[in-house]
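Need tokens for this chain, all 196 residues.
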Amino acid sequence: MPQLTLSVLQRRLLAACALALVAVVLLLRQHGGGAAATPLRVAPVRPQAAPRSAARPIVVDVVGAVRAPGLYHLTDGARVADAVAQAGGLSRRADRSAVNLAARVADGQQVIVAARGSPGAATAAGSGSSASGAPVSLSAATVEQLDTLPGIGPVTAQKIVAFRQEHGPFTSVEGIDAIPGIGPARIAELKGLVVP
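Here are the structure tokens for all 196 residues:
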């Protein structure tokens, strides 16, 4: 068999190729690129709701015919039903027809759950107002309750209810300025009579 002779340049080139091949093999093993690499697993993409701002905490006072009256921490956008559930639910003496469990609650609101047969039960519970002349809650009052306010007729009362259903509870009394027909003079007139 004939003997193969390589020049110095050829030997150096062959050594460099061998080193490069060893380096590639080591890199592939280090980064898991070898033939026995585990397959990449991708989590399924789940559709998400439109991004919301972080829900801020609110505090409501639940009183009346509930099992555990008191102050409760809820998230912004909570309903009267959530507040009543936090308070242990309706008691046996609660007038269920006098409380609107679907109404949104606002920070600082008092949720009143009237007992059956109590005077003013239909206007007190869940409305944000009480039979004792407490301020009317813009975020929870009915059209009829809003209509009793000075300068607020049935049409404007309906606009207030429609606005809060679309945009959520009011955070300030001044927030009703966004409703057509209500301006700074009307807001000044309502001060003390309404709460957010």
